[in-house]
Amino acid sequence: MNILIISRGIPNPNDAQWGSFEFDQAKALAKYGHKVIVACVDTRLRMSRRKIGVSRNCVDGITTYIYYCMPSIFIEFFSEKIGCRFIAWQWRKLGEAIQQQEDKIDVIYSHYLFNSYYAVKCLQSFQAPIVAIEHWSEINEQPVPKMVKFYAAATYPQTRKVITVSKSLQARLKELFNVEAEVVYNMVGTEFSYVPKAKTDKMRFVATGSLIRRKGFDLLPEAFKLANLPCDKWELDIIGEGEEHQNLQRQIDAYGFGSNIHLTGAKDKREIASILNQCDAFVLPSRNENFSVAVLEALACGVPVISSICGGIRECINDENGILFEVDDVRGLAKAIKSIYTDPQCFNRQTIAAECKSRFSSEVIAKQLTGIFEGVVIDKTL
Fold first, then answer.
1. What stretch of H or E contains 363?
2. Rounded to an integer, what distance in angstroms lies between the CA atom of residue 170 and that of residue 182?
3. Which domains does the chain possess?
4. Beta strand 2-6 pairing with 107-111
5. 40 bridge partner residues
6. 197-210: per-residue pLDDT in tens?
7. CA of 343: how far to CAs of 203, 335, 337, 339, 346, in Å?
8. Is the entire prediction scored with pTM above 0.85?
9. 313-343 pLDDT, tens per residue?
10. Cα–Cα distance, 182 to 167 (Å, whole number)
């Protein structure tokens, strides 16, 4: 089967996380036996040189297409509607280039509602069924943003199938847009697996994600202060980049944790896997998640998880692999930190890793997606 994946980006040495979720699935589907193409329109505001027009490459055996003209923020500054038309024009040009060089596409698989909108509006000439997978955090915002409502009304009725990454998001789509979606959980990459942890004198906590308010990293300095652990017996690495970096560093310094809490910057997946294999607990204090890939990566390494109860977190975290607390409950977070510090051996790391692999491995998710794609292709021919 020939599958065209509509992605927000393509991972590269300068931005390893740009479209990494989509690309991991692309590699899993290719390994399962499909021909896979990944395409994106680059609308980012970046101080880096990029080729104008279509760029076709091969990355890890996957054919990729990127269209770049200029950052869309320059257009959207004047009008959001004009910005949408500008992006749509780029998608049409990219679609034409793909059709000229590739075999017939059997399924278009689009990630995020905004990309699914452009797939529906701009790629009709492919005459391929569109499967839209939803994991956009904007859908959980209260109130629902106007652009989300606009995209949803124009997109979901035109897709052949809608997928969500959690039961909670499935219920949200039903409530907001009366969409009947099927759940396909996030996939954990092959870089993440169980390795026995070496003994150390300090307990090591790790958090990963963009440094934005939604991730809740601002709760961590206060929570560790409340937990009142011996300062020479613990450390926390926060892996990621974002707009909250300076605010977080100020908090860390204000609490006197400059030697304990480290903002490491972004890391690639292999670096993150290596760090996870040497840590004692993973922390996710997020205020809004659909279904965290970062949590699955920790579980795949056998690392117990401390997490806020948001989105689909209850669908992967239980008493056997982690500790939960309420969103924004800094005292609950501190209690969980203290609990795992006091009894770090209460979780079986090998069992955690094995259970994660049985549910969220690339083989499991690729098989489930293949069944869905085959179903929509058969429906189209009937």
1. helix 362-381
2. 7
3. 2-187+361-381 (3.40.50.2000), 203-360 (3.40.50.2000)
4. parallel
5. 66
6. 888 889 999 999 99
7. 11, 12, 10, 6, 6
8. yes
9. 999 999 999 999 999 999 999 999 999 999 8
10. 9
